[in-house]
Amino acid sequence: MSSSPLYRRIVRRETHSSRSGIAITLAIVLIVVLAWIGTESVLAAIGQSPLLVAPADAAGAVLGAAGGPVGVLTAIGVVVAIVGVVLIAVSLAPGRRGRRGGASQRTVAVVDDRVIARSLARTASYAGDVDPDQVSVSVGKRSAVIEVTRTSGRSTDLRSIDEAVRDELDAYDYTPALRHKVRLSKKGTVGA
Fold first, then answer.
1. Which residues are listed as membrane-spanning (predicted)?
2. Residue 111 φ then ψ, to 5°
Protein backbone atom coordinates (compact mmCIF):
# COMPACT_ATOMS: atom_id res chain seq x y z
CA MET A 1 0.00 0.00 0.00
CA SER A 2 1.20 3.47 -0.78
CA SER A 3 2.60 5.43 2.14
CA SER A 4 0.97 8.72 1.22
CA PRO A 5 -1.17 10.05 4.08
CA LEU A 6 -3.78 11.18 1.56
CA TYR A 7 -4.06 7.69 0.09
CA ARG A 8 -4.28 6.10 3.53
CA ARG A 9 -7.07 8.50 4.48
CA ILE A 10 -8.98 7.82 1.25
CA VAL A 11 -8.75 4.05 1.73
CA ARG A 12 -9.81 4.38 5.36
CA ARG A 13 -12.87 6.45 4.42
CA GLU A 14 -13.90 4.00 1.72
CA THR A 15 -13.37 0.81 3.70
CA HIS A 16 -14.93 1.88 7.02
CA SER A 17 -18.44 3.14 7.59
CA SER A 18 -19.20 6.14 9.72
CA ARG A 19 -21.44 6.00 12.74
CA SER A 20 -23.27 9.18 11.81
CA GLY A 21 -26.52 7.29 11.11
CA ILE A 22 -26.84 5.94 14.65
CA ALA A 23 -25.66 9.25 16.12
CA ILE A 24 -28.25 11.22 14.14
CA THR A 25 -31.02 8.78 15.08
CA LEU A 26 -30.09 8.97 18.75
CA ALA A 27 -29.94 12.80 18.59
CA ILE A 28 -33.37 12.99 16.95
CA VAL A 29 -34.89 10.70 19.60
CA LEU A 30 -33.37 12.81 22.38
CA ILE A 31 -34.53 16.07 20.76
CA VAL A 32 -38.10 14.74 20.43
CA VAL A 33 -38.15 13.52 24.06
CA LEU A 34 -36.72 16.79 25.41
CA ALA A 35 -39.11 18.86 23.25
CA TRP A 36 -42.03 16.83 24.58
CA ILE A 37 -40.87 17.31 28.19
CA GLY A 38 -40.44 21.04 27.55
CA THR A 39 -43.89 21.32 25.98
CA GLU A 40 -45.51 19.43 28.86
CA SER A 41 -43.71 21.68 31.37
CA VAL A 42 -44.88 24.87 29.60
CA LEU A 43 -48.45 23.56 29.41
CA ALA A 44 -48.36 22.70 33.13
CA ALA A 45 -46.94 26.15 33.95
CA ILE A 46 -49.74 28.00 32.12
CA GLY A 47 -52.44 25.70 33.51
CA GLN A 48 -53.38 23.88 30.29
CA SER A 49 -54.17 20.17 30.02
CA PRO A 50 -51.16 17.95 29.12
CA LEU A 51 -50.58 16.43 25.68
CA LEU A 52 -49.82 12.98 27.06
CA VAL A 53 -48.81 13.07 30.73
CA ALA A 54 -48.38 15.97 33.13
CA PRO A 55 -44.80 16.37 34.41
CA ALA A 56 -45.91 15.98 38.03
CA ASP A 57 -47.74 12.73 37.21
CA ALA A 58 -44.74 11.43 35.22
CA ALA A 59 -42.33 12.25 38.08
CA GLY A 60 -44.67 10.58 40.57
CA ALA A 61 -44.92 7.48 38.39
CA VAL A 62 -41.13 7.25 38.05
CA LEU A 63 -40.60 7.66 41.78
CA GLY A 64 -43.36 5.16 42.57
CA ALA A 65 -42.05 2.61 40.05
CA ALA A 66 -40.14 0.77 42.76
CA GLY A 67 -43.48 -0.41 44.16
CA GLY A 68 -44.62 -1.77 40.79
CA PRO A 69 -44.79 -5.41 39.71
CA VAL A 70 -41.39 -7.11 39.62
CA GLY A 71 -42.01 -8.62 36.15
CA VAL A 72 -42.68 -5.22 34.57
CA LEU A 73 -39.64 -3.64 36.24
CA THR A 74 -37.45 -6.55 35.15
CA ALA A 75 -38.69 -6.28 31.55
CA ILE A 76 -38.01 -2.54 31.48
CA GLY A 77 -34.55 -3.11 32.96
CA VAL A 78 -33.75 -5.78 30.37
CA VAL A 79 -34.87 -3.55 27.48
CA VAL A 80 -32.79 -0.63 28.77
CA ALA A 81 -29.77 -2.94 29.24
CA ILE A 82 -30.12 -4.34 25.70
CA VAL A 83 -30.33 -0.83 24.21
CA GLY A 84 -27.23 0.14 26.21
CA VAL A 85 -25.28 -2.93 25.10
CA VAL A 86 -26.25 -2.33 21.45
CA LEU A 87 -25.11 1.30 21.63
CA ILE A 88 -21.81 0.32 23.25
CA ALA A 89 -21.24 -2.42 20.65
CA VAL A 90 -21.96 0.00 17.79
CA SER A 91 -19.61 2.57 19.25
CA LEU A 92 -16.74 0.10 19.70
CA ALA A 93 -17.19 -2.01 16.54
CA PRO A 94 -14.85 -1.16 13.67
CA GLY A 95 -17.66 -0.42 11.22
CA ARG A 96 -15.89 -2.14 8.34
CA ARG A 97 -17.43 -2.19 4.89
CA GLY A 98 -16.92 -5.13 2.55
CA ARG A 99 -14.05 -3.44 0.71
CA ARG A 100 -10.26 -3.57 0.53
CA GLY A 101 -7.65 -1.05 -0.47
CA GLY A 102 -4.96 -1.88 -2.97
CA ALA A 103 -2.00 0.15 -4.20
CA SER A 104 -0.30 0.67 -7.52
CA GLN A 105 2.60 2.94 -8.46
CA ARG A 106 0.81 6.30 -8.31
CA THR A 107 -2.64 5.64 -6.94
CA VAL A 108 -4.77 3.41 -4.76
CA ALA A 109 -7.84 1.38 -5.62
CA VAL A 110 -10.70 0.23 -3.45
CA VAL A 111 -12.13 -3.16 -4.41
CA ASP A 112 -15.43 -4.57 -3.18
CA ASP A 113 -15.31 -8.03 -1.59
CA ARG A 114 -17.98 -9.24 -4.04
CA VAL A 115 -15.60 -8.55 -6.93
CA ILE A 116 -12.89 -10.56 -5.22
CA ALA A 117 -15.37 -13.38 -4.56
CA ARG A 118 -16.39 -13.51 -8.23
CA SER A 119 -12.79 -13.54 -9.34
CA LEU A 120 -11.92 -16.36 -6.94
CA ALA A 121 -15.00 -18.32 -8.05
CA ARG A 122 -13.98 -18.00 -11.68
CA THR A 123 -10.41 -19.08 -10.89
CA ALA A 124 -11.61 -22.06 -8.85
CA SER A 125 -14.06 -23.17 -11.56
CA TYR A 126 -11.34 -23.07 -14.24
CA ALA A 127 -8.78 -24.84 -12.05
CA GLY A 128 -11.24 -27.52 -10.91
CA ASP A 129 -12.86 -27.95 -14.33
CA VAL A 130 -16.33 -27.41 -12.87
CA ASP A 131 -19.19 -25.19 -13.92
CA PRO A 132 -18.97 -21.66 -12.42
CA ASP A 133 -22.41 -22.21 -10.87
CA GLN A 134 -20.91 -25.02 -8.78
CA VAL A 135 -18.49 -22.71 -6.96
CA SER A 136 -19.56 -20.61 -4.01
CA VAL A 137 -17.22 -18.06 -2.44
CA SER A 138 -17.70 -16.04 0.72
CA VAL A 139 -15.21 -13.33 1.63
CA GLY A 140 -14.92 -12.24 5.24
CA LYS A 141 -12.68 -9.75 6.99
CA ARG A 142 -9.52 -11.84 6.70
CA SER A 143 -10.54 -15.07 4.98
CA ALA A 144 -12.15 -16.41 1.84
CA VAL A 145 -14.00 -19.73 1.83
CA ILE A 146 -14.35 -21.44 -1.55
CA GLU A 147 -16.90 -24.25 -1.64
CA VAL A 148 -16.93 -26.46 -4.72
CA THR A 149 -19.86 -28.73 -5.55
CA ARG A 150 -18.80 -32.02 -7.13
CA THR A 151 -20.16 -33.38 -10.38
CA SER A 152 -20.99 -37.06 -10.51
CA GLY A 153 -18.66 -39.10 -12.66
CA ARG A 154 -15.84 -36.52 -12.46
CA SER A 155 -13.07 -36.14 -9.96
CA THR A 156 -12.40 -32.75 -8.47
CA ASP A 157 -8.79 -31.93 -7.70
CA LEU A 158 -8.77 -29.76 -4.59
CA ARG A 159 -5.00 -29.30 -4.76
CA SER A 160 -5.11 -27.60 -8.16
CA ILE A 161 -7.98 -25.37 -7.04
CA ASP A 162 -6.09 -24.49 -3.86
CA GLU A 163 -2.92 -23.63 -5.78
CA ALA A 164 -4.78 -21.51 -8.34
CA VAL A 165 -6.62 -19.58 -5.64
CA ARG A 166 -3.40 -19.11 -3.65
CA ASP A 167 -1.61 -17.78 -6.75
CA GLU A 168 -4.41 -15.33 -7.41
CA LEU A 169 -4.54 -14.09 -3.82
CA ASP A 170 -0.75 -13.70 -3.77
CA ALA A 171 -1.01 -11.47 -6.84
CA TYR A 172 -3.38 -9.12 -5.01
CA ASP A 173 -1.98 -6.24 -2.97
CA TYR A 174 -5.05 -5.70 -0.81
CA THR A 175 -5.19 -4.65 2.79
CA PRO A 176 -6.20 -6.58 4.85
CA ALA A 177 -4.77 -9.64 3.12
CA LEU A 178 -6.92 -12.75 2.69
CA ARG A 179 -6.31 -16.35 3.76
CA HIS A 180 -8.29 -18.95 1.90
CA LYS A 181 -9.84 -22.33 2.48
CA VAL A 182 -11.09 -24.64 -0.26
CA ARG A 183 -13.59 -27.36 0.58
CA LEU A 184 -15.88 -29.75 -1.21
CA SER A 185 -19.59 -29.46 -0.67
CA LYS A 186 -21.33 -32.43 0.91
CA LYS A 187 -23.85 -32.28 -1.92
CA GLY A 188 -23.16 -32.99 -5.55
CA THR A 189 -24.67 -32.48 -8.97
CA VAL A 190 -25.46 -34.92 -11.73
CA GLY A 191 -23.17 -34.51 -14.71
CA ALA A 192 -24.54 -34.33 -18.22
1. 21-46, 66-90
2. -115, 130
Distance CA(142)–CA(176), nearest Å, equals 6
Contacts 24+ apart (CB under 8 A), 60-65: none
- The β-bridge relationship of strands 143-151 and 174-175 is unpaired
Mean pLDDT score, 76-103: 84
Query: CB 35: neighbour CB atoms within 10 A?
Result: 10
Cβ atoms of residues 111 and 148 within 8 Å? no
Q: How far is CA 186 from CA 44, 135, 149, 150, in A?
A: 69, 13, 8, 8
Task: Tell me what percent of the residues of the chain surpass a pLDDT of 90.
Answer: 30
Query: Is the model's pLDDT at 54 over the cut of 60?
Result: yes
User: In which residue ranges of the chain is CATH 3.30.300 found?
Assistant: 99-189
pLDDT at residue 34, rounded to an integer: 93
* Residue 134 CB contacts under 8 Å (≥ 6 apart), including other chains: 125, 148, 149, 150, 151, 189
- pTM metric for this prediction: 0.60
3-class SS letters over 48-116:
CCCCCCCHHHHHHHHHHHHHCCHHHHHHHHHHHHHHHHHHHHHHHCCCECCEEEEECCCCEEEEEHHHH
Third-level CATH fold of 99-189: GMP Synthetase; Chain A, domain 3 (3.30.300)
* Phi then psi dihedrals of residue 186, to 5 deg: -75, -20
- Report how far residue 135's alpha carbon sits from residue 140's, in angstroms, rounded to the nearest whole number: 16
